[in-house]
Amino acid sequence: MNLLVRLRRSPWTISACSGTLIVISAIVSLVYGVNPFGANHHGAFDFAKPGPLLVADALMIAAALVAGVPIAVKAVRALLVKVVAIDLLVTIAAVGALVIGEYWESAAVTFLFAFGHALEVRTMNKTRGALAALVAVAPDTAIVMRDGDQVEISAGAVALGEIVLVKTGAKTPVDGIVVGGSGSLDEASITGESLPVEKTVGDRVFAGSISRSGLLQVEATGVGADTTLARIIHRVEEAQDAKAPTQSFMERFSRWYTPGIIVLALVAGLLTRDVVLGLTLLVIGCPGALVISIPVAVVAGIGRGARDGILIKGGEYLETSAKINAVTLDKTGTLTWGTPRLTDVVPLAENTSREDVLRWAARAEVGSEHPLAKPIVDGAAAEGFAVKELPEEVEVIAGKGVVALVDGHRVAVGNLALMSALVTSGSGSASEAASENAQLTSTMDSLAKAGRTPMAVSLDGIPLGVIAVADQIRPDAPRMVSWLHSVGVRDVVMLTGDNARVAQAVAGQVGLDEVRAGMLPEQKLEAVVGLQEKGYTVAMVGDGVNDAPALAAANVGIAMGAAGTAVAIETADIALMNDDLMKLPRAISLAKRTVSVMRQNIAIALVTVIVLLTGVFLGEVTMALGMLVHEGSVLLVIVNAMRLMRPKRFRE
Question: Which residue spans traverse the membrane (predicted)?
Fold first, then answer.
């Protein structure tokens, strides 16, 4: 019974049955000595013919009906909603061929059309393989800890906050946080990362990732439809069904084109009084390759992106991304890691070591909540003198720094304005203070020009030295900018709220085309709009939450590191599932490749129709040959689109 159901639902069943009948009919005719593919029948079904030829005719008619009836049903359904579909052209041609006795032509046309439809269905299913793969990795069961026991339940039955065990070889059933154990997870289905990722306590995990080693205890923070995997599946499903502007245009074009072909065939048949010519024109004019040329490319492109951890919202954004020639991005968290680290410790006072400067700074900053305090304290701990004792007093001076009382000494860490006042009042002569200030200024300027944030350290009014922190540039940022240029992006622009010196230093190392520093979110919006007014198609790279005005104004909003971020996945035009900067040029390259394939497919389809129509009027193309070439063009555009499923490799 299951076999019969599968056969009934298979797109290949109809064409297989029709093809089998055609082969049997041809064999019968050949055995009797008659060419089965010639124009050997004219007029009504002739019962005076020898029995074998009657059988051959009946089989050929049956082949035409088996393949043609479903086509006719679709044509009628389309007409009921006032749509003149391609199926109507084939139906009219097939029925007309039967009426005038061209049984082979009718059978060939309907068989080839049914075969082409089956091929289209199979190809679309294959191009949707990324979606099928995502659905396949969705776990069915979960092992949870309840009352100290391991209980296996449905993955959808896991409650928020429950502890889930993920053993080696198992699929992670929920989004969550590791609260115990360690191991490595294959997150390729979520982020596109090919190598397993090590997970320890405090790390995030995603539903659908596969454990390659270890045992993890995971506290569930997202279950069922609220997991990252479920959101990705939903987004890919919607995206593959969304139509690109070119596809919508082609569908509107075919609504006029198809009736036009019917009129052309009718006029040609009446003027020449050649029914076969008219019917052949109906078959030749079928815009099948034209109609499928765009959707198969869009689905393949979006599917390729999903496999690479690049979620594209739909065909519209795929086409727009192919036009991107300006990319705007933030510095912190995009070009840099977003986590400042201690980079420099410069002692200035006599008999003062590097360790002295760092230790006093860390002792003062351990009681501060300033964002730059943590890298100083962490830097001291990394060098072997962890700070645990809090200072007796802490005074935060807004816009200047911090002054703390440590073991009876007044320690200050801050900018030149703070140091100038403290040095003047705490040291000897005014000239000595001026000299110390000059040395501080020179050192701090030098560090600032290098893209670091310098802070002076003083002890009881005497400057000890300078420490500096910096947000580290991602090692692949320069390569990302180079790749963006290689895929056609003219300008890569940094829009940052950081100071100009730091921004310029980062831009110089990365190779950016333009830097705009000290910007508020509203100014970033103005910058994006300004680029658009100059004729640029602009992509804005953000996190899907911050810089919302600029993301909304850009032609394409791109969210980086969107895995696990529901807002980013749902609102971004393109979501890059992890923080791999290389996915940005890959996304633009994929969009350009997809649009290129779309244009190639349109050219293939139009050239085929023009050549065939010319051949028909010259008397060189028959109905069956025309349909064969037509279906060949369908196969060609499909194969061309399937090239998008291969991953693109950039040259280093």
Answer: 12-33, 53-72, 79-100, 106-124, 256-273, 279-303, 602-618, 624-642
- The predicted structure's pLDDT at residue 124: 64
163-166 and 141-146 strand pairing: antiparallel
**Could you tell me whether strands 538-542 and 556-560 are parallel, antiparallel, or unpaired per DSSP bridges?**
parallel
CATH number of 140-225: 2.70.150.10
Q: For the domain made up of 309-336+474-588, give the CATH fold.
A: Rossmann fold (3.40.50)
State how far the Cα of 364 lies from the Cα of 403, in Å rounded to an integer: 7
Tens digit of each residue's pLDDT (9 = 90 or more) over 54-78: 788 888 889 889 988 988 898 888 8
> Which segments of the chain belong to CATH 3.40.50.1000?
309-336+474-588
Q: Report the candidate in 499, 645, 647 with the shortest Cα–Cα distance to residue 129.
A: 645
By annotation, the residues acting in catalysis are 330
Q: Distance between CA atoms of 167 and 277, rounded to whole angstroms?
A: 69
What is the b/e burial string over 433-471, where b = at least 16 CB atoms within 10 angstroms of the residue's CB? Answer: beebbebbeebbeebbebbbbbbbbbbebbbbbbbbbbb
Asked whether 517 and 498 are in contact (CB, 8 A), the reply is yes
CA gap 572, 594 in Å, rounded: 20
pTM tops 0.85:
no
The rounded mean pLDDT for the chain is 80
| Rounded to 5°, angle at Cα 638 from 633 and 640 | 95
Which structure tokens are listed for 53? 């030829």
Q: How far is 102 from 281, CA to CA, in rounded Å? A: 15
User: Where in the chain do CATH 3.40.1110.10 domains reside?
Assistant: 338-472
* Half-sphere exposure of residue 277: CA atoms within 13 angstroms, side-chain side: 17
**DSSP for 115-170?**
HHHHHHHHHHHHHTHHHHHHHHHS-SEEEEEETTEEEEEEGGGPPTT-EEEE-TTP
Whether the CB-CB separation of 580 and 264 falls below 8 Å is answered with no
